[in-house]
């Protein structure tokens, strides 16, 4: 069976993305060290022209994508898709690994396994910088470059893991601007609860901190509590029911991802509190999109997961192949999506599975 050739549109898209990335790098002050000869662009174009023209060649490089997000969390599906799409276009192999259930130790074990495989690069979520610090530094000392994605090391640059770049949103801003969306509408909450599905996850804890700060800065004295809801939807629903029963004055729920938003929607429907209790979340999927459209959910933050899969693979390829240094940070969000902005993300969800 003949291989499908890369279409001109796809080829142009990839080259445009690479050009934009290089332009961004130059904007970060690396122009003197990252200028790429035209011949390199021609080489990339020729490579894409030949893609699928015959038997596929062996992958040029192997990258490991080591994440705290496993198959239990549907949010990671478009991330995986993005990484594999980039791998196909660039003729590299991307091995994605994530634990069945959230576990810092499992993440550390997966990182150590990736290091032992001696890949050309590692893309890594820095979910717990204390636990990941030693193995990540070990990988870098062995000549394996690391790009952080989705969750950065929040420490100052001279203390953090020396990865090449961070691709993803600022987690504090994600929480802060989501809560500020409610504040800017003039709503003064009586009591706020934040459902956190992975306690200790530095990214989620930082989101929760942003939410708390935005509410308490605007309305000092307003109770804002974190609630451990776990990653189990049934347990999450039970936790929300118990909290709302014990605190009937609760009028705002924030969740930090679909694993919290889905059971919260269910509970509000069952308790007939839809429309009475404001619900806002971070991250978007089809269920959340429909809930916004139906008026059951006020707003959600989009951080564009497909880009978090696709872009770090491109960055790693450019670094390993040409020595092109990526920008220190490439923000993929946050963008607050409400009913008025649904069309902005419909195409992303339809084509990638998330936004």
TrEMBL record:
It comes from Thermofilum adornatum 1505. InterPro entries: Peripla_BP_I, SBP_2_dom. It comes from the Archaea. The keyword Transmembrane applies. This is Inositol transport system sugar-binding protein. Keywords: Membrane, Signal, Transmembrane, Transmembrane helix. The chain crosses the membrane at residues 12-31. Residues 72-321 form the Periplasmic binding protein domain. Gene3D superfamilies: 3.40.50.2300. It is found in: Cell envelope. Belongs to the bacterial solute-binding protein 2 family. GO terms for molecular function: carbohydrate binding.
């Amino acid at each position: 069976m003949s291989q499908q050739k890369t279409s001109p549109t796809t080829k142009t898209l990839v080259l445009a993305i690479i050009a934009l990335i290089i332009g961004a790098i130059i904007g970060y002050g690396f122009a003197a060290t990252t200028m790429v000869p035209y011949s390199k662009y021609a080489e990339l174009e020729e490579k894409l022209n030949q893609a699928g023209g015959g038997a596929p060649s062996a992958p040029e490089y192997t990258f490991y994508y080591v994440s705290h997000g496993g198959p239990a969390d549907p949010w990671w599906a478009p991330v995986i898709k993005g990484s594999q799409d980039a791998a196909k276009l660039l003729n590299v192999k991307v091995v994605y690994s994530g634990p069945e259930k959230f576990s810092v130790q499992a993440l550390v074990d997966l990182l150590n396994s990736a290091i032992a495989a001696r890949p050309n690069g590692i893309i890594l979520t820095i979910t717990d910088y204390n636990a990941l610090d030693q193995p990540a530094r070990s990988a870098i000392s062995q000549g394996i470059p690391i790009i952080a994605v989705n969750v950065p090391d929040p420490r100052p640059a001279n203390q953090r893991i020396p990865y090449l770049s961070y691709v993803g949103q600022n987690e504090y801003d994600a929480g802060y601007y989501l809560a500020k969306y409610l504040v800017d509408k003039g709503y003064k909450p009586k009591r706020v609860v934040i459902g956190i599905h992975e306690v200790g996850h530095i990214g989620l804890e930082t989101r929760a901190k942003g939410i708390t700060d935005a509410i308490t800065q605007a309305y000092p004295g307003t109770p804002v509590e974190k609630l451990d809801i776990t990653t189990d939807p049934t347990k999450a629903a039970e936790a929300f029911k118990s909290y709302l029963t014990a605190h009937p004055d609760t009028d705002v729920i924030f969740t930090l991802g679909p694993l919290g938003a889905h059971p919260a929607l269910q509970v509000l429907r069952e308790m007939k509190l839809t429309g009475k209790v404001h619900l806002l979340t971070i991250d978007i999927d089809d269920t959340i999109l429909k809930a916004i459209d139906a008026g059951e959910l006020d707003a959600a933050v989009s951080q564009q997961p497909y880009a978090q899969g696709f872009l770090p693979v491109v960055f790693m390829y450019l670094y390993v192949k040409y020595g092109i240094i990526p920008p220190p940070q490439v923000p993929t969000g946050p963008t607050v999506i409400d009913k008025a902005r649904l069309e902005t993300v419909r195409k992303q969800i339809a084509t990638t599975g998330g936004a």
